[in-house]
Design goal:
By secondary structure, the chain is an alpha+beta fold. Strands 1-7-8-9-4-5-6 form a seven-stranded antiparallel beta sheet. Strands 11-10-14-13-12 form a five-stranded antiparallel beta sheet, with helices on both faces. The chain is elongated. It starts with a strand and ends in a 5-residue tail after the last strand.
Length: about 425
C-alpha cells in the first residue's frame, strides 16, 4: 500500500509570494545570466516562508505564474465571486504545471464536509460527486489532508486504502494518482484543500509542489476574504432587521439638528416616511417649551466625544398632535463611519398620560378630602381631561333636580 505524506514545502505567507517574484525576475535569474547547465529555477519553500531558487522547467511558466498571481489578486481586491477566483487559481496551476488536473475544495463552516468549488478540467458528474465529501482517512487524499493537517500523496490510487471507497469512480474519470494539500487561514484553521490529479501513476515533482504552494496561499486569501464579506453581510442583515422591525427608532443628526438618517420606525411612531425628514432640522418639530432644553443638551453633548445623555421631550406628530419622546443620544461625531449624534428614541406618550392621570386623580382626591369647593374640584378635573386629550375642550354638566335641567359645572374653555 502506497501512502505518503509531504509537509516540508507548504508556504502560506505573503513573503513567499514576494519571494517568487524576486526569484523569478531578479537579475541573477534572467536567461542571459544563468549558467548553461542550469535549465530552470527550483523554488523550495522554507519554514520561515522564504523561497530559494532551483528548478522551474520553463522560464515562460515562471512569467505566467507571476502574471496569474497579479490577476488573481486583482480579482480578490475587486470583490469578484469566490468560485470565479478559485476557478482562475485552478486554471493557473493547470497552465503552468501541465499534464495535471486541479480541484479546489472548500470546507463547510462546521468543518465536516468538503465541497468542490473549482475543477475546470473535470466532468460535471465528477464535480457533483464531490459535494459534501466527509473529511476522514478514507475520503481520499483531500479528506485525509484535512484530518492529518498536512499534504497527502497517493502515487497509485489502485493501491491506496484512502481511495478504496471511491476507486471505481476515480478509474471511470481517468484518475490514476493524486495528492492533496490543506488550505489554512492565518490561524492555521483549515479552510479546504487543493487536490492534484493525474491520468497515470505519479509522484509530484518539486516544482509542482511549489506551484501548488502558491495556489494554496492564493486560495487561502480568497476564501478568507469571502468569509469575511459573508460575515459582514450577515451582520448587516441582522442589524437592518433589528432596526427596521424594532419598536424603537434610530436617527443620525448633525450638531445643528439636520437629520442625516431616520429608521423606518419614524413612520410608525410619528407618521413621517424616512425620506420626509432626512435633510430637515429636527428642532423644527420639537415643542417650543422643550426646545431650549434639548438644544442645551445637544450642545453640551457635542463637546464630549463618545458620551451619551438621556432626555424626555415632546415632538409633533404628522397629524399635528404632540407625542412624548424618550431619547438616548450618543456623540459619535469623531467616528469616521458615522460623524453624527446617534439618537435612539421611543414614544412614551401613553406612559406620560398614565402618569398624568394618576397624578390628577390623587390631586382631586386631596381636594375633596381637604374641603375644596365643588367649582374648584370640577375645574381641576376639566383641566386634567383637556391636558390628556390633545386639541379638545371639556365641560362638566350638572343636573338640577328642581328644574330638571342641565347647567355647566365647569367649562373653562368653552366660548
Amino acid at each position: 500500500m502506497a501512502v505518503e505524506n509531504y509537509s516540508g514545502t507548504n508556504t502560506s505567507s505573503v513573503s513567499a509570494v514576494n519571494g517568487v517574484i524576486d526569484v523569478l525576475f531578479g537579475p541573477e535569474n534572467q536567461p542571459e545570466n544563468r549558467a548553461e547547465n542550469r535549465e530552470a529555477v527550483r523554488i523550495i519553500g522554507q519554514s520561515n516562508g522564504q523561497i530559494d531558487p532551483e528548478i522551474i522547467p520553463d522560464h515562460k511558466h515562471s512569467e505566467s505564474l507571476v502574471a496569474g498571481q497579479v490577476e488573481i489578486f486583482e480579482m480578490i481586491a475587486t470583490g469578484q465571486q469566490l468560485c470565479a477566483v478559485l476557478d482562475r487559481i485552478a486554471r493557473l496551476i493547470e497552465d503552468v504545471a501541465g499534464n495535471l488536473r486541479c480541484v479546489i475544495l472548500q470546507l463547510d463552516s462546521e468543518g465536516k464536509f468538503l465541497t468542490a468549488r473549482a475543477a475546470p478540467s473535470m466532468k460535471k458528474e465528477f464535480v457533483e460527486a464531490l459535494q459534501f465529501l466527509p473529511i476522514g482517512l478514507r475520503s481520499g487524499t483531500c479528506g485525509a489532508s484535512i484530518v492529518q493537517r498536512e499534504a497527502q500523496i497517493s502515487p497509485d490510487v489502485t493501491n491506496d486504502s484512502r481511495w478504496a471507497d471511491y476507486l471505481e469512480f476515480l478509474i471511470s474519470h481517468d484518475v490514476r494518482s493524486s495528492w492533496s494539500t490543506p488550505i489554512f487561514d492565518a490561524n492555521r484553521n483549515p479552510l479546504g484543500a487543493i487536490s492534484i490529479l493525474y491520468d497515470h501513476p505519479h509522484k509530484p515533482e518539486l516544482y509542482e509542489i511549489e506551484f501548488v504552494n502558491v495556489a494554496t496561499h492564493l486560495a487561502s486569501i480568497a476564501i478568507e476574504r469571502a468569509r469575511s464579506e459573508r460575515r459582514l453581510q450577515v451582520s448587516e442583515s441582522r442589524f437592518r432587521a433589528l432596526i427596521e422591525k424594532s419598536g424603537e427608532g434610530v436617527s443620525l443628526v448633525k450638531v445643528d439638528g439636520t437629520v442625516l438618517y431616520a429608521s423606518p420606525a419614524m413612520k410608525r411612531l410619528f407618521g413621517y416616511d424616512t425620506e420626509d425628514v432626512v435633510g430637515l432640522r429636527a428642532d423644527e418639530s420639537i415643542h417650543p417649551e422643550d426646545l431650549p432644553y434639548v438644544r442645551a443638551l445637544a450642545n453640551s453633548l457635542a463637546e464630549r466625544p463618545g458620551d451619551s445623555t438621556n432626555a424626555i421631550y415632546r415632538v409633533r406628530h404628522k397629524d399635528g398632535s404632540w407625542r412624548w419622546l424618550e431619547t438616548t443620544t450618543t456623540n459619535m461625531l469623531d467616528e469616521p463611519s458615522v460623524e453624527a449624534l446617534v439618537v435612539n428614541f421611543r414614544d412614551i406618550t401613553d406612559r406620560k398620560k398614565t402618569e398624568k392621570l394618576i397624578e390628577g386623580q390623587l390631586k382631586v382626591l386631596e381636594m375633596i378630602t381637604t374641603g375644596a369647593t365643588l367649582n374648584e374640584t370640577l375645574d381641576t378635573i376639566v383641566r386634567l381631561v383637556e391636558e390628556l386629550s390633545d386639541d379638545s375642550v371639556c365641560s362638566i354638566l350638572l343636573f338640577d333636580e328642581a328644574s330638571r335641567t342641565l347647567r355647566h359645572g365647569s367649562a373653562l374653555n368653552l366660548p
